[in-house]
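Hi P.,

Sorry for the delay on this. The queue was packed all week, but I finally got your sequence through. Input first:
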Amino acid sequence: MWHWIAGLVGGLLALALAAVVGLVVSMRAKWQPGLRLVRRVNKRFTNPRVLATAGRPGGSAAVIRHVGRRSGRSYATPIGVEVGDGVLVTLLPYGPTTDWVRNVLAAGGAQVTVQGRTLEVTDPRVVPVAEASALLPAGERRLAAVFGATEVLLLTPAG
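Then the structure:
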């Protein structure tokens, strides 16, 4: 009986490890099928759960509200944001081709709610991680290295 349980637990741990390795390899290599799968899982499962607390004081994520460039619909997407030196910085582990980044760039701005404060942001710019590394904490720089993120989005608070 115990052998069966140990085998099941070991198998589940091996499967989870394989999924994590697959995620990291897909993101570092920018392998499009893997990135599409991760994006779909995030849109359908992860993002709705994170949005429940995103943007609130003590929340681990911010919320960016943007308008679809083709649909005209309003969207809310959870993002990680660092605030510093008069600019908001968000790491782009999938690159600048995600829908929300393209929407923000096309509109020239958005609204970001971080720690309970909503800010109008303008002048979105995609820049290399190296150019913004001084604005990123060590943990974000490590994430960029692990996932092979090469770009960040800079947003300037209006006013």
